[in-house]
Amino acid sequence: MQLLRTCAGWRPDTVGFRDPVIATRIALKSLARRILELNDEIANLDELITPLVAELAPQLLARPCIGVEIAGQILVTLGDNPARIRTEAAFAMLCGVAPLPASSGKTQRHRLNRGGDRQANRALHMAAISRMRIDAQTKAYVARKTAQGHSKLEIIRCIKRYLAREIYHLMREPTTLPRTT
Fold it and tell me: Residues 102, 104, 106, 108: what is their CA dihedral angle, to the nearest 10 degrees?
């Protein structure tokens, strides 16, 4: 951040813009100012979205490794009519975490669905990775599956499917935006 502020504060000589060093300084100053402005905009939007997500999905925020960004993405994925998702399998398909058979011969295995909402899939992936690092139950699950010979990708797939199931049951109650008059 200090380097960005330094670059944004530069005052390159714009008369000699044909010199590659000066042209590079002008470009770096412009990029640094843009990055700082975008960081400020992100901070302002985070201040607005945090209370909305806390109001609409406090049950999600209470779960381990599910923060405002992940809960917000789940709310966006569900849309304004979460009742249209009737089963946890439908929610898993919507998020792109439904297992698809990928067996060959005597090998019985599954792979992740490449369809669905990629942003919801990413949110579940981040929650799964966080749980693998922090949550004791998930750590035990990972150790058990690793001992059974499962690959890390298969374990992550299973954790994402479990998270989709958990989130579906937490979000069964329809959420509505507060009315403004």
Answer: 0
Sign of CA dihedral 136, 141, 147, 152: negative
Residue 141's φ and ψ, nearest 5 degrees, are -60, -45
Cβ partners under 8 Å of residue 79, min gap 6: none
Q: What is the DSSP letter of 62?
A: T
CA–CA distance, 121 with 162 (Å, rounded to integer): 13
Let me know: does 108 contact 99? Beta carbons within 8 Å. Answer: no
pLDDT digits (tens, 9 = 90+) for 115-131: 788 999 999 999 999 99
The position carrying tokens 């209370």 is 51
Cα 132 to Cα 95, 127, 139, 168, 178, distances in angstroms: 20, 9, 5, 20, 35
pTM equals 0.75
The bridge status of strand 110-112 relative to strand 99-101 is antiparallel
Does the CA dihedral 15-20-25-31 come out positive or negative? positive
Confidence band of 177 (pLDDT split at 50, 70, 90):
very low
DSSP characters over 63-126: STT--HHHHHHHHHHHTT-GGG--SHHHHHHHHT--EEE--BTTB--EEE-S-S-HHHHHHHHH
